[in-house]
Design a protein that fits this description.
It catalyses: D-gluconate + ATP = 6-phospho-D-gluconate + ADP + H(+). The protein is an alpha/beta fold. Helices cover about 45% and strands about 15% of the residues. The strands form four sheets. It has a six-stranded antiparallel β-sheet with strand order 1-2-3-6-4-5, with helices on both faces. The protein has a five-stranded parallel β-sheet with strand order 12-13-11-14-15, sandwiched between helices.
Length: about 500
């Protein structure tokens, strides 16, 4: 700090209600992390950056703290303009310090609108209030956020294998000393071997991610504590402003963080809903090829940071034992993402309104499957929004063939790398079902065909009741769909399970 004002003295000043030019709620709450101090005054919160240099971030000078506070303001305004307000100087006024004065600044703070801490998604989760609907809305919000984030040739450089691998290598170097304390030698070696081999074997994949503009200025720290529901609106906040390699990343880096956070909390089902919602909105099913790498990375970083507590002499033994347990859980999760998994292919089959998607969504959360709807694939191929009603042009025989070809292409790609995949479409033609069966048999992949069935009148009622679904199907199509449905052949029947969805 400047002018002989220490950090502890400055904190005492900001804890004083008279320091603020507005009414405050007393006592003022102070929340500290290793890099910042936040003062909760009631209507407003003020963030002070600590004068620290950890290598990956440097707030050691007043100019740097001013710069990074303004960076934080600039980066978070687009996603949380109602929360992030302005950067203000703290100046000396005689013997006193003043907020927003005209003298020479001795420090800077970021002024934000304060929201209740129980609005955080982490708090909602702990209280059992993080609903499936909120998670779906989050998936759509993050998809929209990523579509608007910037990218350019400079940002894309951070998607090169050498740059990405640097962070992985550093993680392993910094955690070797915790082997047989917080993780096993086997876990360490297998996790590192997997990521090393992934980088070596997937040079073309990383190149494709760069060429497809998937390396963007992302959030960088997308977990439940940095998401809130305030005034019935979801906000992403606290984006990484202090380190370019942490935010100039593949969009799957963000997604991997959020899914990992839910996995670590024992709610793979919510992580699955978030992931499938996001992927359906963006059409970035290819991104699932790099997702396990980033899930492992995010879990490993959590493990590493927790392990650092073991080196802190000010931390008591009880806290260190808790840290070992927490770090061990994260190391195990990071290792788990790297383990070989066997894929499975499931075809949903049936007329519009037969409950295919309802059954598929429930099943996806149970087996942690990727759920791909033909309606989404068709609209992505046509280049239209999922919320936009398709014209007859996207329902021609040619377009339907392209849709089913793309479904199988995605299914085979993902099954081969170990994902259970649910292809959700009418699958009313034998040739489309046969193509999937041929793939499964030739690659010895488990296959099921789930045929959903209910009375025609019920299907009609369901289609009439639809309001916000991405499907364009209407009741007047049912008769022709029923007439054109090609019955299962003798070779198909062993794979078929019929589900009565009357009660779905």
């Amino acid at each position: 700090m400047m002018n002989s004002v220490t950090l502890s003295q400055l904190i005492e000043h900001l804890k004083n209600p008279e320091f603020y030019p507005h009414a405050v709620e007393t006592p003022i709450q102070v929340v500290q992390t290793h890099i910042s101090v936040v003062f909760l005054t009631g209507e407003y919160a003020y963030k002070l950056k600590k004068p620290v240099n950890f290598g990956f971030l440097d707030f050691s000078t007043l100019d740097k703290r001013d710069y990074f506070l303004n960076q934080e303001l600039t980066m978070n305004k687009p996603v949380a303009s109602d929360i992030y307000l302005e950067v203000l100087p703290i100046t000396r006024d005689g013997e006193n310090l003043k907020l927003g004065g005209t003298g020479d600044p001795i420090e800077y703070v970021l002024k934000m609108r304060q929201f209740p801490q129980n609005c955080l998604f982490s708090s909602l989760f702990e209280e059992g209030k993080l609903t499936e609907n909120l998670i779906k809305n989050l998936g759509k919000l993050v998809a929209d956020f990523h579509s608007q984030t910037r990218t350019d040739e400079y940002i894309k450089q951070f998607g090169e294998v050498e740059k990405i691998k640097e962070a992985f290598d550093e993680n392993y170097q910094q955690t070797e000393k915790y082997i047989e304390i917080a993780q096993t030698q086997k876990q360490f070696e297998e996790t590192k071997t997997y990521t090393d081999k992934f980088f070596q074997d997937n040079q073309d994949l990383f190149k494709q991610r760069r060429e497809q503009d998937k390396i963007r200025e992302c959030h960088g720290d997308l977990h439940l504590k940095n998401i809130c529901l305030w005034n019935d609106k979801i906000y992403l906040f606290d984006r990484i402003e202090f380190n370019e390699p942490f935010r100039f990343v593949d969009v799957m880096y963000d997604i991997g963080f959020a899914v990992m956070d839910l996995d670590a909390k024992g709610r793979k089902d919510l992580g699955n809903i978030f992931l499938n919602t996001y992927i359906e909105q963006t059409g970035d099913w290819e991104g699932l090829q790099v997702l396990p790498l980033y899930q492992s990375r995010q879990a490993y970083v959590r493990a590493k940071v927790t392990s650092f507590l073991l080196d802190d002499p000010s931390v008591d033994e009880s806290t260190k034992q808790e840290a070992i347990k927490s770090a061990s859980d994260y190391y195990r999760l990071a290792w788990g993402y790297t383990q070989h998994k066997s894929g499975k292919l499931i075809l949903m089959c049936g007329l519009s309104g037969s409950g295919k998607t309802t059954v598929a969504q429930k099943l996806a959360t149970e087996i942690n499957a990727i759920h791909i709807r033909s309606d989404a694939v068709r609209k992505h191929l046509a280049g239209i929004s999922l919320s936009q009603r398709g014209t007859e042009a996207i329902y021609t025989a040619e377009m339907s063939q392209k849709t089913y070809d793309r479904l199988l292409e995605l299914g085979t790609m993902l099954v081969k790398i170990g994902y259970p995949v649910i292809l959700d479409a009418k699958y009313d033609r034998r040739e489309w079902r046969s193509a999937a069966i041929a793939f499964a048999e030739s690659h010895q992949i488990p296959l099921e065909i789930l045929h959903c069935s209910a009375p025609l009148e019920m299907l009609s009622d369901r289609l009439k009741a639809r309001t916000t679904d991405i499907s364009d199907a209407t009741p007047n199509l049912l008769a022709s769909q029923q007439a054109n449905f090609e019955p299962f052949s003798e070779t198909e029947l062993p794979y078929v399970k019929t589900i009565d969805t009357t009660t779905v």
